[in-house]
């Protein structure tokens, strides 16, 4: 739909340029620079919690809008020295056409603004004060809410939420969710229920859906089983297993038993 709209708008703009705009003027060339990059494309890591449904935003079909304009009555038209043309309709709506093809439409009450840039990007300001920016080249939608929440929808299906408190939540296409906290901690929840937490010191805690739990540090990796058994593998390769019965068994890196309290 966006591609169709972009082509149609390009044709309409060329017609306007030939008919109304003999010279290029100063123009609102302000376009958001580089589109936002997804945080999780190269390092999925792990992830967190079901997301709330996000409101769909439909961008305008410019071909339809141009047909609609023809049917509406124009109250006045102003040609500015910088080359832009402003059309004022009897219903109060205003449309501004810039020399480079950018188009700005303002609703009668001034609460809705749609800017379609010459490169295909679209910016919408909604009555509820949401600002939605669509990056045509990257096929990415960036929505900013009045309270400061930002939501990005990438063409891959990945969704990112940037919260005012500095927290970031990434939902991957497979529904793995990764949360990055402002203090440097991370929490990831996988579709199978596995939870991975990374602390600020780099220590990692893994909670499996079968009740087992692991702690990873620079010195050792320890697994705790539901029955109370604890198995620890140290950096030098030594393994220590403590059973609920009180038995302790220690092996070297090659698996040779160094100690067993039951032997």
Secondary structure elements and pairings:
Blueprint: H1 2-20, H2 62-71, E1 74-79, E2 85-89, E3 94-97, E4 103-106, E5 113-116, E6 122-125, E7 131-135, E8 140-144, E9 150-153, E10 159-162, E11 168-171, E12 177-180, E13 186-189, E14 195-198, E15 204-207, E16 213-216, E17 220-224, E18 230-234, E19 239-242, E20 248-251, E21 257-260
Antiparallel strand pairs: 1-2, 2-3, 3-4, 4-5, 5-6, 6-7, 7-8, 8-9, 9-10, 10-11, 11-12, 12-13, 13-14, 14-15, 15-16, 16-17, 17-18, 18-19, 19-20, 20-21
Largest pleated sheet: 21 strands, antiparallel
Query: Looking at the structure, what is the overall shape?
Result: rod-shaped
| CATH homolog superfamily of the domain at 1-23 and 61-155 | POLO box domain
Instruction: Please name the CATH topology of the domain at 1-23 and 61-155.
Output: Arylsulfatase, C-terminal domain
What structural category arises from helix and sheet content?
mainly beta
Total helices: the number is 2
CATH architecture of the domain at 1-23 and 61-155: 2-Layer Sandwich
Unreliable spans: 1-33, 41-55
Mean pLDDT: 82
* Range of strand content: 25-35%
Oligomer: single chain
CA distance, first residue to last residue: 75 Å
Order of SSEs: HHEEEEEEEEEEEEEEEEEEEEE
- Tell me the radius of gyration: 29 Å
Q: Supply the CATH class of the domain at 1-23 and 61-155.
A: Alpha Beta
Family: Belongs to the TCP10 family.
Organism: Mus musculus (Mouse)
Region (Disordered): 24-56
Protein name: Centrosomal P4.1-associated protein
């Amino acid at each position: 739909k966006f591609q169709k709209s972009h082509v149609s708008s390009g044709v309409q703009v060329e017609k306007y340029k030939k008919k109304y705009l003999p010279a290029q003027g100063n123009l609102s060339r302000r376009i958001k620079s580089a589109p936002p990059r997804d945080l999780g494309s190269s390092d999925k890591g792990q992830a967190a919690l079901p997301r709330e449904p996000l409101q769909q935003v439909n961008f305008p079909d410019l071909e339809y809008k141009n047909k609609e304009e023809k049917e509406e009555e124009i109250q006045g038209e102003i040609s500015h020295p910088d080359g832009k043309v402003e059309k004022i309709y009897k219903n109060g709506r205003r449309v501004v056409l810039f020399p480079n093809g950018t188009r700005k439409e303002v609703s009668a009450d001034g609460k809705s603004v749609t800017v379609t840039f010459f490169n295909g990007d679209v910016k919408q300001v909604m009555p509820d004060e949401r600002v939605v920016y669509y990056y045509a080249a990257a096929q990415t939608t960036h929505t900013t809410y009045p309270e400061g929440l930002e939501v990005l929808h990438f063409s891959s299906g990945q969704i990112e939420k940037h919260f005012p408190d500095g927290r970031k939540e990434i939902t991957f296409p497979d529904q793995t969710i990764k949360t990055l906290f402002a203090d440097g901690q991370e929490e990831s929840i996988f579709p199978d229920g596995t939870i991975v937490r990374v602390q600020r010191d780099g220590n990692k805690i893994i909670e499996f859906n079968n009740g087992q739990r692991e702690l990873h540090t620079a010195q050792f990796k320890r697994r705790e089983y539901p029955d109370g058994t604890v198995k620890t593998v140290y950096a030098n390769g030594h393994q220590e297993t403590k059973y609920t019965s009180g038995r302790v068994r220690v092996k070297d890196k090659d698996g040779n038993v160094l100690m067993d309290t039951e032997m």
